[in-house]
């Protein structure tokens, strides 16, 4: 565009025309350098005046942001500052079990295998009055399986144990205890529950139900399962469960080499349980439970001519607890009764108690309370059944994270209905566990078991000491 001629009114209105042909050199066609902006030097702000308050002046706290310290590993305490700027130590929450097994994770399933090898001396493996002792070795493998799903749940507890008694091999004892549980979340308020169980073992030595001339305690198998449904209505919850179990005995061998059939002790048990609970407080859920069951033997009468089929009824009330992870579990008290088909057998009835509570007294000390009540079968003439009650208390204290001491006390009562016999069982235990690593533990234990009976000749005492190694993952 050509510049406006001299005298053009546009020149007076808009001033001199802009230069043309400007490049990247900073100059225009008029050969005049563009003015540069002046740089204003930066000067530091003057320091704030220091004000010395008078003695009567009231001081107000000054709130300043506190920089967050970088993450520090393997320290027991961190440094933090409160609102006044004072740095105070804060204790880090302790790890639940610094030497616990981490398991093997395969997708959504975690496996925790372990094996224990123990050896020691048992002063009375037969659990009889005046019994002799023997050295022994036990091998106990186990496998825990747990799911990590966002919905549903599956858990399995698979354990085994075999004890060899070198001087008294007739008391060698196998134990296979398998349990699996599952939960299927149908909706947020409805769930289905399943369980399968299997137990293979021998009768406890000294069991009065066994003939005195047995060469070894008889072997039995007990297996079964259950299925149920859980329905929630806000804080109200109902659980309905059905059970079926079967108990079978192998033939036993007598000291003279002959075989004794024990199939009259085989039976099936069918049962159903209904529980109603209400969440009264967060972590406290009282409940009332009622159950019925029926035992049907393979043989209508046993070899002594007694009909031992029976019906059982149980009712109990209690509560479950989960209070700030300090107290967890449940406890209940109730009443049970069992009536028998044979009119010569009296009913078995009495007060029962069940509990499984864990109380974290301190981060280093834990107390466990267990209680169980059952009505067992009997083959003794005139005895309808045995009402067993057991209660135990165990304390675990960590002197160090890698050194744990254990003390346990237990009491049991066996009431032989129809015979008037009553046995009092006791157990006291002291043990120590030295955790070398998460995978290797050393264990030692001393246990004393004894029985007091109102029937002469049935008392016994047994002292057991053992040491061993536990390997786990």
> What integer value in Å does the Rg equal?
39 Å
Structural class call reads mainly beta
Order of helices and strands: HEEEEEEEEEEEEEEEEEEEEEEE
The fold-level CATH name of the domain at 183-472 is Porin
Question: Biggest sheet, open or closed, and with what strands and sense?
Answer: 18 strands, antiparallel, barrel
What amount of the residues lies in strands?
over 45%
Q: Count of helical segments? A: 1
Residue runs with pLDDT of under 50 for 5 or more positions = 7-14, 54-94
| Residues in helices, as a percent range | under 10%
Q: What's the CATH architecture of the domain at 183-472?
A: Beta Barrel
CATH class of the domain at 183-472: Mainly Beta
Number of strands: 23
| Overall residue-averaged pLDDT value | 85
Shape: globular
Protein model, in words:
The chain is mainly beta and 473 residues long. The protein is built from 1 helix and 23 strands. It has a domain at 183-472: Porin, CATH 2.40.160. The chain has one helix at 9-14; strands at residues 77-81, 87-91, 104-106, 109-122, 134-147, 153-165, 173-185, 190-202, 219-233, 236-249, 252-253, 259-260, 267-278, 284-297, 310-323, 327-340, 348-362, 365-376, 385-400, 403-417, 421-435, 440-453, 460-472. The longest helix has 6 residues, at 9-14. The N and C termini lie far apart (88 Å).
């Amino acid at each position: 565009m050509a510049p406006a001629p001299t005298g053009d009114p546009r020149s007076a209105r808009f001033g001199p025309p802009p230069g043309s042909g400007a490049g990247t050199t900073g100059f225009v066609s008029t050969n005049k350098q563009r003015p540069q902006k002046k740089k204003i030097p930066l000067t530091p702000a003057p320091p704030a005046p220091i004000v010395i308050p008078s003695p009567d002046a009231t001081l107000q706290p000054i709130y300043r942001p506190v920089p967050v310290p970088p993450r520090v590993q393997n320290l027991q305490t961190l440094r933090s500052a409160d609102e006044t700027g004072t740095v105070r130590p804060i204790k880090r929450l302790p790890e639940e079990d610094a030497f616990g097994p981490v398991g093997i994770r395969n997708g959504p399933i975690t496996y925790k295998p372990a094996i224990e090898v123990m050896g020691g001396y048992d002063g009375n493996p037969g659990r009889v009055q005046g019994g002799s002792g023997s050295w022994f070795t036990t091998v106990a493998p186990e496998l825990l399986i747990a799911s990590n799903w966002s919905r549903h749940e599956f858990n399995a507890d698979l354990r085994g144990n075999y004890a060899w008694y070198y001087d008294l091999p007739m008391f060698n004892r196998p134990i296979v205890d398998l349990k699996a549980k599952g939960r299927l979340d149908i909706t947020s308020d409805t769930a289905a529950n399943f369980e399968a169980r299997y137990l293979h073992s021998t009768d406890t030595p000294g069991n009065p139900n066994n003939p005195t001339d047995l060469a070894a305690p008889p072997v039995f198998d007990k297996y079964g399962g259950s299925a149920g449904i859980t329905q929630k209505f806000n804080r109200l919850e109902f659980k309905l469960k059905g059970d079926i179990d079967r108990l079978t005995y192998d033939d036993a061998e007598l000291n003279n080499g002959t075989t004794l059939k024990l199939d009259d002790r085989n039976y099936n048990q069918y049962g159903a349980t209904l529980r109603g609970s209400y969440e009264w407080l967060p972590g406290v859920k009282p409940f009332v439970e009622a159950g019925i069951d029926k035992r049907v033997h393979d043989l209508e009468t046993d070899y002594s001519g007694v009909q031992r089929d029976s019906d059982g009824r149980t009712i109990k009330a209690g509560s479950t607890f989960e209070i700030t992870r300090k107290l967890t579990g449940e406890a209940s008290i109730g009443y049970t009764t069992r009536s028998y088909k044979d009119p010569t057998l009296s009913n078995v009835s009495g007060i029962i108690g069940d509990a499984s509570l864990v109380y974290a007294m301190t981060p280093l000390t834990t107390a466990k309370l267990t209680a169980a009540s059952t009505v067992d079968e009997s083959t003794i003439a005139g005895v309808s059944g045995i009402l067993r009650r057991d209660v135990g208390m165990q304390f675990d204290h960590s002197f160090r994270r890698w050194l744990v001491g254990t003390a346990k006390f237990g009491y049991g009562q066996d009431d032989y209905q129809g015979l008037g016999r009553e046995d009092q069982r006791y157990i006291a235990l002291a043990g120590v566990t030295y955790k070398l690593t998460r995978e290797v533990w050393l264990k030692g234990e001393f246990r004393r078991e004894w029985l007091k009976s109102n029937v002469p000749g049935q008392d016994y005492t047994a002292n057991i000491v053992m040491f061993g190694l536990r390997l786990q993952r």
